[in-house]
Amino acid sequence: MSEPEITDLTEAEARAELKRLANVLARANEDYHGKDAPQISDAEYDALKRRNAKIESRFPALKRSDSPSDQVGAKPSETFSKITHAVAMLSLGNAFSDEDVEDFLQRNRKYLGLSDQDPIPVTAEPKIDGLSLSLRYVGGQLEHAATRGDGTTGENVTANARTIDDIPQSLTNAPELLEVRGEVYMSHADFAALNERQAASAGKLFANPRNAAAGSLRQLDAGITRSRPLRFFAYAWGALSEPLADTQSGAIARLSALGFQTNPLTKLCEDAAQLIAHYRDIEARRATLGYDIDGVVYKVDSLALQERLGFRSTTPRWAIAHKFPAELAWTRLEAIDIQVGRTGALSPVARLTPVTVGGVVVSNATLHNEDYIAGQDSKGQTIREGKDIRPGDWVQVYRAGDVIPKISDVDLARRPSGTSPYSFPHRCPQCDSEALREEGDAVRRCTGGLICPAQAVEKLKHFVSRGAFDIEGLGAKQVEQFYTDEWIREPADIFRLRENYESGIRQLRNREGWGDKSAANLFDAIDDKRTIPLARLLFSLGIRHVGEAASNLIAFHYGTWDALIAAVTAAKDLSGPEWDDLNAVDGIGSVMAGSLVTAFSQPAERASVDRLVEQLTVLPAERPAADDSPVAGLTVVFTGTLERMTRAEAKARAEKLGAKVAGSVSAKTDILIAGPGAGSKAKKAADLGVRTVDEQEWLDLIGSA
Q: Fewest Cβ atoms nearer than 10 Å: which of 7, 45, 179, 208?
């Protein structure tokens, strides 16, 4: 069954969904790899993986230690030896619309400092729905083959890969070291024939061609793999002793010349219009290709630009997968439920008469917020032709490529008579506190704070989550149990559990799943986290707008807990030099700064935090600095037009050298790098006596560091 859209998940829903996904995917992996008898389709498996990754992106603190995202594909099977990839095999970001494709090109132009008129040639190729494989050749000879595995370590399937006709055993005129990457797949016809043979011999049937290809490649007996009709398309590379070409298209042509099968539908395009036209053409041919694809992959053609664009944490900036369209179905909206999240957000969820949408049973869908229910966007503009959504309506449900169920339309002709527009609650359904909607905010929020059980429990769950204190043995289930039993009401109570247990105030023994040993293990795990880095502590507090990345920025800026508290206390009126200094932290801004200051200005909240810190040793934050860097520890500001690199590149390079990049000039600024067009920042720097240099002087200062 599907869950609400990720953007509308509460903290509790997200944690429960991540647990469900981890369990479902673990079972699927066991069925797929261990038993060779998958119970879910390949499309469902990939969609669940994508959903898991998106939830973790929105709720990074909830990421589990057994997260499927850390595996990229799947954990290597214990039945195979392991091979560590010299270059990690990462996944791709997704696009689901023409606008997403335009955004992909615009983001890259902006990062590279190019104008809208500057072309960025991009290759477009079918996204093969198969199993990723890396082939390492040394001196022209196939040395080993490895599955993607978890992206870092894969399974050694060399003997099996040698049986695939499309994989050359030796190469002529190849680089001394060459890692070729591509996709192992099985054609529709070969898949049907294989299942016929399996059925005739009372063997296991495969769910789809991808699972058949994966199961065949992972056989312990290479003879079985040899009997399976596997194919291989090459489309990328890993470690190289010398470049294949200057461009993506040139490198693919070189792989073809070396004897690898490359996809004939790969095309070089000059702009978004050509990319989308080729996407439509491939989509139209999809049913006749003879093998499974689930989209089209776009890659910036210039390898020099790929190098400049680089990577995010798990995906390259220079590539994206344009997925095929969503699938639709009509069903009845039975009810609208309101769920309360950690920050008090009231999130509406549609409870639906279960309906199958693209092979997945959907019983819940997102309703975003009260405006969306009323037929408006956040700016008051009409959507769905102004049709509101009411319980009892027949609604059109669609799910995108990552199985996010949404409601796109309402059939007014089937609306029951006598219904009234849905009245969004103005009071919290959990604690009956007033639920207010601030000007400019699309969400209504409960004002109950810690007296609201939904918020209190979600804050505690966030506190012990992976990105925060990450206490082993103290997860969502235990937090809910301890809160219900009134053993913990605030984070500081966690660190008093041992004391209360030993004094007899609280007892765990004789409770299901608990005994003296398990209690002692929990208390030891809690004590292990009494020493905590500043950034983790700040993130653990669950302050609105202050996520993991912002917590690191703030921690690096202030260095110590005492310095941070002194600064936000002094800035409680949202004015003065400390307030200006906080706003100057690059990447923070007035909204986040205001949220931080407000959180520490609330007497009850501040007292709760003080009680927590009394139990802890908070480690100061130290920004990693490059060896011999002349700017390590300095605060720098860029202004005006940079001519040798883009602002994003300049900032990334400065931070790599250990500098702190601020967004505005203050008394704490060490260097202002001013290009042509520098205005008020240059004047303020002069007034404050801040050292000002031009771009060339900056480059001379940092040299080749």
A: 7
